[in-house]
Each structure stands twice: as structure tokens, then as C-alpha cells.
TrEMBL record:
It comes from Erwinia typographi. This is Uncharacterized protein. Pfam families: LamB_YcsF. GO terms for biological process: carbohydrate metabolic process.
Length: 256
């Protein structure tokens, strides 16, 4: 079975960078590239596209709210139309950069608060997905399973790929444990390895409360800002291969 390994990348600004993007790009199969709102700028976006092209990594847009200071993790009172405009603007910018480099944007993955706001509002999810579908009806939408984003994308005829977050704790309802709670971000290599192995072999994750929870996914996410993200992504890939799978970009996973 082919499984995608993705990470949010290019989340710096100017001379500042969040992680070793070049090293991480050699490990993952899909890159979710920040599009200039919560992080990133035109130089970083171009560099990420070129690195992805060199490594054969799938290129994805990672739109977020225009909130550099809060890194896009604080919800802001934008209207549904404003959020649609923000998504369209960021996707369009990355598509233009990719086209200039002779490649295309293959997928989209929402960042933090923007994703939370869309996932909580069925009508907003539908409006955003309709806008995205008019731009590129082949764009793969990354989402967690059984969400408004996944359903709205499918309703609009967009291909979807559900993700498992290897470095974030889940609660009993399948929601992510808020980052401010101790244990919400999983940094230990042994813990990440055990979670990925459980997911691959059993299709479950152990929740924050200690109970097994079924997870339907074909892509595994490691956040680039998790300490040791390059090593953690390498662990994810090694576990996939050790258990008979193949690491592949989202487009190949969808085609399987």
C-alpha cells in the first residue's frame, strides 16, 4: 500500500526559518507550503517549490489566516467571503510560482485556525470548496476523516486524502488535544514510532484518555515545528516501509 508522508513547510519569513526545510524535503513525499499569510513569503515559496521539484515531492498549498504574530493559530473574526478570498489568493499565488517553475500544485491543506474555522462550519466549508473546485477540480484536499471539509470537497467532486497526525494527541471524540495542554504535542521518537506502528497495523491510535480510536487515513503528517521533525519524519517513513508499505506523494496514493 502506498502512503503519503507530509509536512507543513516554508513557515519562515525573510531570513528566519522554522526548521531545516531542505533536510525535511529529502524525507517527506508531500510538502504543504505556507503561502505568505501566517508565514512564508515569495522568496521562501519559490525556494520550497524548487526544492520539491528537485526531490520529486508533491507540492501543496498551506493557506492560513493573515496572522504572522500568532502564526495563524488564533481565530480572527473574518466573514465567510473573506476567508474564501484568503484561500483563493494564497492558492493562486502558489499556483503561479509553481507554473513558473514548470510544476503544479497538487494538493491543499489548511493551516491551524483557518482549518478549524472551516471544519466547524458546514456552509463555510461548502463555500470554500466550491471556490477551490472552480480553480482546479483535480486539486487533492487534505483533511482529517469525517469532517465538513472532507464532505464538502467530495460534494464538489474534489479528490480527498485523509490524514493521521503522528505528533499530536487525539481525544476520545477524535479531536486534536489543544496545544496548551501537556502531552498534546508528541515529541519523543519512541512514542511517535509506536503510534505510527499502531496506526499501520491496527488502524487505530490510543487517545489522550488511553482508549483505542479508529483512524481512517492514507497520509501521515509530521509538523515541521515539532522538535526533531526531520528525525520524526524519517521514523514515520521507516515504519511504513518496515510494515510493507511504500512512501509516495498524494497524487500516487489517490491513483492507487
Amino acid at each position: 500500500m502506498k502512503i503519503d508522508v507530509n509536512s507543513d513547510m516554508g513557515e519562515g519569513f525573510g531570513v528566519y526559518q522554522l526548521c531545516d526545510d531542505a533536510a525535511l524535503m529529502q524525507v517527506v513525499s508531500s510538502a504543504n507550503i505556507a503561502c505568505g499569510f501566517h508565514a512564508g513569503d515569495v522568496d521562501i515559496m519559490t525556494r520550497m517549490v524548487r526544492l520539491a521539484k528537485q526531490q520529486g515531492v508533491g507540492i501543496g498549498a498551506h493557506p492560513g489566516l493573515p496572522d504572522r504574530q500568532g502564526f495563524g493559530r488564533k481565530e480572527l473574526p473574518f466573514s465567510a467571503d473573506q476567508i474564501c478570498q484568503q484561500v483563493v489568493y494564497q492558492l493562486g499565488a502558489l499556483r503561479a510560482i509553481a507554473a513558473a517553475e514548470g510544476v503544479r500544485v497538487a494538493h491543499l491543506s489548511f493551516h491551524a485556525a483557518m482549518g478549524n474555522m472551516i471544519n466547524r462550519d458546514r456552509a463555510l466549508a461548502q463555500q470554500v470548496m466550491q471556490s477551490v473546485a472552480r480553480i482546479d477540480p483535480q486539486l487533492i484536499i487534505f483533511s482529517q476523516p469525517d469532517t465538513f471539509v472532507e464532505q464538502a470537497a467530495q460534494d464538489c467532486g474534489l479528490p480527498t486524502l485523509t490524514i493521521f497526525l503522528a505528533d499530536r494527541a487525539y481525544d476520545a471524540l477524535g479531536q486534536l488535544v489543544p496545544r496548551g495542554i501537556a502531552g498534546a504535542v508528541i515529541k519523543e521518537e519512541s512514542a511517535v514510532r509506536a503510534r505510527v506502528r499502531q496506526f499501520l497495523l491496527e488502524g487505530t491510535v490510543t487517545t489522550f484518555e488511553g482508549q483505542p480510536l479508529a483512524v481512517r487515513a492514507r497520509s501521515i503528517l509530521i509538523h515541521s515545528d515539532t522538535p526533531g521533525s526531520v528525525e520524526l519524519a524519517s521514523i514515520v517513513c521507516s515504519e511504513i516501509e518496515a510494515n510493507g508499505g511504500t512512501v509516495a506523494p498524494a497524487s500516487e496514493v489517490i491513483a492507487q
